[in-house]
Amino acid sequence: MKDVLDYIEKNKQAFVDELVALLRFPSVSADSAYNEGIAACAEHVRAKLVSIGLSAEVVETAGHPIVYGEWSNPANSRTLLIYGHYDVQPVDPLELWDHPPFEPHIDGETIYARGAADDKGQFLIHLLAVEAFLKTGGNLPVNVKVVIEGEEETAADNLEGFIKQNRERLKADGVVVSDTAMFDHGVPAITYGLRGIAAAEISLSGPGRDLHSGSFGGGIANPATEMARIAAALHDEDYHIAIDGFYDDVEPVADWERDAFGVLKFDEGDYLKKTGAIALQGEAGYTTFERVWARPTCEVNGIYGGYAGGGGKTIVPAKAGCKVTMRLVPNQDPEDILRKFESFVLKTASPAVTVEVVSQGGAKPAIVSRDSFLMAAGTAALERGFGREPVYMREGGSIPIVNVFKEELGLDTLLLGFAQHDDNIHSPNEKFSLADFHRGIVTVAHFFDEVGRPG
Amino acid sequence: MKDVLDYIEKNKQAFVDELVALLRFPSVSADSAYNEGIAACAEHVRAKLVSIGLSAEVVETAGHPIVYGEWSNPANSRTLLIYGHYDVQPVDPLELWDHPPFEPHIDGETIYARGAADDKGQFLIHLLAVEAFLKTGGNLPVNVKVVIEGEEETAADNLEGFIKQNRERLKADGVVVSDTAMFDHGVPAITYGLRGIAAAEISLSGPGRDLHSGSFGGGIANPATEMARIAAALHDEDYHIAIDGFYDDVEPVADWERDAFGVLKFDEGDYLKKTGAIALQGEAGYTTFERVWARPTCEVNGIYGGYAGGGGKTIVPAKAGCKVTMRLVPNQDPEDILRKFESFVLKTASPAVTVEVVSQGGAKPAIVSRDSFLMAAGTAALERGFGREPVYMREGGSIPIVNVFKEELGLDTLLLGFAQHDDNIHSPNEKFSLADFHRGIVTVAHFFDEVGRPG
What we know:
Two copies of one chain form a homodimer.
Chain A: H1 2-10, H2 12-23, H3 35-51, E1 55-59, E2 66-71, E3 79-85, E4 105-107, E5 110-112, H4 116-134, E6 143-149, H5 158-165, E7 174-177, E8 189-194, E9 196-205, E10 211-212, H6 223-233, H7 255-262, H8 268-275, H9 288-294, E11 297-306, E12 315-316, E13 319-328, H10 334-348, E14 354-363, E15 366-367, H11 373-386, E16 391-395, H12 400-409, E17 413-415, E18 431-433, H13 434-452
Parallel strand pairs in A: 3-6, 3-7, 7-17, 8-16
Antiparallel strand pairs in A: 1-2, 2-6, 4-5, 5-18, 8-15, 9-13, 9-14, 10-12, 11-13
Helix pairs in contact in A: 1-2, 1-4, 1-13, 2-4, 4-13, 5-12, 11-13
């Protein structure tokens, strides 16, 4: 490892130059005016993979191309799938940028450019760590398969098609992704779990048309009221979810996790400021971190019924409805939860309205076991890269590609994020810390080393 | 009375001819293309009033004119205000009419034309009853003030302005209006009560903007859920309204009313067919007639919050709201009810959301006491005109002009409707029974006679 670490130290400036070069490509995926920038960036990444010793190709898709590369040594016991994306968010509103978004600007230890943190600066960390191994000993302790896509910032699913068509080729032992943030400045994090999701829509019908609420109000059921009664019944007084059997398969928050989340600094004032809420609220008996990372939820994303325009309209509405997504935790299964949701809604609804529940599918929660080599290696690597133990986090959302890796390839994904929450991703003046860029390369080199050790 | 009744009998055909003449005016108030028809109709009504012996004028307003007429004899003890409207609904879709809407078509005992039932055929009944008195004995047992407006089918409130500016001139002992329906074919009705109304809108704010339901769901309050919890709390399990003190001033349904409503034929299948509902539902312990006529309600006219478009959107919405109207019965006061509503909502809302309740005013319930001369006279008159006792009804809606008469002039209004529920008012092929037209004239003549008797 010494040669590897020396190489990283010696090439500190060269690596920054490489980042600058990568950031110059205007690879905005959502706007076809940038198709040239996308194509050039894909080719640049392919060339980089080849230059450091991988076999690599640009895979054309129905949308933007995927860059795929791999390197293996039969002596290695493990294979890592490294995922990233070379496309970036649009730059509007351009006038709010202090410097042109595709002319990287360095101020002290910070680099400003579109894509700096999301995700060019982060996936490049992995390529440079690979380079450090291959350019020193000519070997890498793990086999690597690199997938850098160009449609992460769009709704396209060409990557999913690529994965489905290349299940054999993409065989690996685990996935590592750097596309998230650290817990805080100077505080590295292991993000080892994502919540799953299950979505459904409830539709209620009452009268055949909107009726005059004077002439008919009181005589027949009001679907808006009935919708409210169902939506209200989803939680009890303590904000536990009241759907029968909803918690049957929920893995309780483990003691070690409670401890791990408990040591994380939670600044209530800052959280309220960030969300704009006037108070915290959630399931009784759990902290905010536990509530959003490790406990399931049932959120009304939208409720509607009757008249919502200006002024008033004296009607008993004909219809009402509500869109719900439930965030799931291990070992809840979206299909099972959707069945329980439907049963609960049908049971709860007034017999005087017609109720329909349409399940819209979902995704399983994803978690890396504490015993997994990914988590052990990540922990050890971050300690070496940042000089302090990482904190253990989960993420409340679902990252679709992580579910695809799990569903299609059977692989767990570890999220080793090196960005900060205030890096302005998706906003003007996106930035990335060059110190963390450097520490990230050191960390990932150690990660490869750890993963490569006989388990 | 014999001369009066003979006159009515003798002029049966002449009165039908008068109705046909009145129906020929295309007095659509909502479309300025018909302004000429409106003006000509107003002048026709004024001329009719003069021809039967009233002093009358066409009163110009900011919109369509009001026809005002009066006749008095100092010997009379009571004055009746007679209200009607000469404007009619639009005729679209014209292709669905079997005969041109302004070329009255008579088929047996039925006349087809726009305005036949709503309201030309009905207000003309009153003018012809006045005529029968004045053309026989030259006297009328009551003083009459006649207001026939031209904007009932629009949202204009020029009539309200006219009433406010003419409080002295319009002084009377009661109002009679024929602009509603009988209970059924052959079953005359006294409609002696209208529900009041109180309107409010609830607005909830949670996070400062729609938040990602994965990252934040579970940690903060969801305004759509909280809105549902408030809307659901408005009623208890038995659909009694749960607002504290809501029923404090409610006059219980009197035994005689329960009996009166109880004898009315209620066809559940027909009611469900008419409303399109799959079942009846309402406050426990009351019949449908009691629920919609004599009990207050709290209806959600609209509920909204978050995403209501196609597909889904995984958000914790920033805002939600709900529009509510409460129908009131004697002796509930809209201002008092709105205060109680607001207190209840504020008490019920989660402290983790910001809640605002905006009261949008209301109107008091209107009821004619059983002891009122209007009700006694109406009952006696209908018995004579239709050969059977009338049934006693209330109406669940609020008729704004009735509230104006009450608020501005302190007058109760009796609704003596001669139309049928299937007369296609506001629809193609509007019709009116010529038999009921005739019986109506006889009834109103008796009504004048009854009202004129020393009380």
